[in-house]
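Pasting as-is:
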Amino acid sequence: MLARVLILLSLSACMLALSASGLTGRLLLPPPATSAETVGVVTPAAPPTRARAVALRPGDTLTGALRREGLDRRTSNDVIAALVEGGADLRRLNPRDTLEITRTLAGDPVAVRWEPSPWLGYAARATEAGWQARRSETRPRVSVAAVQGEVTRSLWETMERAGASPALVVDLVEIFASDFDFTADTRSGDRFRLLVEERYAGDTFVDHGRILVAQYVSDGRVLTGVRWEGRRARAGYYDPDGRSLRKSFLKSPLEFTRITSGFTYARPHPILGGVRPHLAIDYAAPVGTPVRAVADGHVLRAGWNGGNGIQVHLRHRSGYETVYNHLARLGPGLRAGTRVSQRQVVGYVGATGLATGPHLDYRVARHGRFVNPLSEKFIPGDPIGAAERDDFRDHARTLVRRLEAAAPF
């Protein structure tokens, strides 16, 4: 009782002092402590969790992958709804994608992370308001590197040893595909070098980007391709004088195969016997190898044609026609009357009709007369315009000098 009286007397004295100082009615107190500063209150730590990478299978959907990992239907639907709201396109998953589920030690899912590429990711997290997702992007770090080599057995094998990805091999071949037949003309001792972009996510190498300049040397012939993005035209490859390397026709409808029979007017026929003209080029390749249209054109025939088996017959500009025989099946959506573009897959190698084994019988006719595809001079593409030619030549000289310094032969 005495203690309470003393406290009241002390408070009364304080109020009198405040009144005397002109601060009547304003009792100055320290600011309230935050939850972290509150004496005697400990902020609870987040519960421990464990993350598990999920192996995706060809044809997987996110629903299927989550259900396979034990998430119930309602939780799976909530996760998917959050990711879609966050901008994710979940129509198709790739086995190379990264999918990770984080759970508490009790097994409750608290986060799902999906990365469709090293540059893009989505993370869904369980909150008091339900599942919420956010999108994150990583800007590639790009550097330029030199790749070079000398062909021993095959260009593919040599470039693999040089650290090139399969996509980079294809990109190099396509640069010179109109001037050089890598099927017929590649030989031991050929050399190549190129400057190519390398893309990194942080310090991790991801893939190769654009080839800036490339050279291929075969039998004393030097092919040079320089990338140029003009002011109006789309990006393309040109020789150092500005001539386009993209001709109206490719040299070959197949990549990385071999010729088993050439163009001739007198060849012993392997099935019918006797000596007959073989006005085609035969390419040996495994069944199912994609066959490309060598030029833009229209489909005249697509289907079975007697001893030719499954055949595709195309009409092109300047009186040219091409024929692709003994196919296993046609390319997607191919039928008479449709239009095709250069490099479009028109069929797949097979052994239909009068064929002794899997191969492509490829023929080229001009104004109704068959010609040798390997020696025909096809129409070149458009060169660099006069207004940009000087800029391009300076650009080409700079890149070629840089290539020679970085990868000397």
